Amino acid sequence: MDGFVIVNGELTGYYGEEKDIVIPNNVKMIGAKAFNENKIIKSVEIPEGVETIGFATFAKCASLKKVEIPNSVNSIRGNAFSECKSLVSFEVGTENKIYKSIDGNLYGNSKDGMELLYYCVAKKEESFQVPEGVNIINRYAFTNGKNLKSIVIPNSTVTIGMCAFLGCKRLESVEISSGMEYIGWDAFRNCSSLTSINIPNTVFEIGMQAFRNCSSLASIEIPESVIEIGSDAFYECPLLTIKGKAGSYAEQYANDNKIPFSRI
Predict the structure, then answer these.
(1) φ/ψ bin of 216: left (φ > 0), alpha (ψ from -120 to 50), beta (otherwise)
(2) What are 54-64's pLDDT values in tens digits?
(3) What CATH superfamily classification does 1-102 receive?
(4) Assessment of whether the complete model's pTM goes beyond 0.90
(5) Is there a contact between 156 and 136 (Cβ–Cβ < 8 Å)?
(6) For 169-200, how does the pLDDT look when each residue is reduced to its tens digit (9 = 90+)?
(7) Strand order in the sheet with 134-137
(8) CATH number corresponding to 105-264
(9) Is the dihedral of CA 35, 37, 40, 44 positive or negative?
(10) What is the arithmetic mean of pLDDT over 7-12?
């Protein structure tokens, strides 16, 4: 089959020039990085029988717009579709027991609910409300989102994964409901238009570089529940003043990192 490298049912690479790909029927697994950084492909149709999409399989496929996932897929491994800046649609078989598409975005079952795996970052919508029931926003879920200006995150969400909103340069406002516990490494890094975000009093940790280069962010209130802030979490935020309670961890962090602090 032209361009496909298949070994014992595993597709390990593609060297063809087709833009619209149909995975061959004899494939059971699409291996790690099989299409990684492919600049040509625009759509992928995965047939029934494929069970696994490997690590970073389609990561950084700059032209990829549409992905069709069958009922048989039961494992999508880390970073499988990360940093695919042209994505507009996932379609998932209606009888798939683990994964589903809601409004074209990809979701999966998690231990305690549902995980938002990948938002189609080339969509034209400027606002998005994470569905109630989502408890994890996956790493790289919104990375380099082109048009989003506002996000609302529900009570059910407890974790924002690493690099979840990295490089969403038009993002201005994030509303986080009570229930959030952890904001991951680089979660909002390079969100250069971000001016408004709240940290609820259920958050206990803000990861390394979580808000690095949020150059428009002028203030953020950090509650007493936060007991850990990673290094460079607010690096390259020249306008920032941290607000919080006197004697809090937030005040200590601000002082240690020479960030202006305002007691509330």
Answers:
(1) alpha
(2) 999 999 999 99
(3) Ribonuclease Inhibitor (3.80.10.10)
(4) yes
(5) no
(6) 999 999 999 999 999 999 999 999 999 999 99
(7) 99-102, 105-110, 113-118, 134-137, 159-160, 182-183, 205-206, 228-229
(8) 3.80.10.10
(9) positive
(10) 96
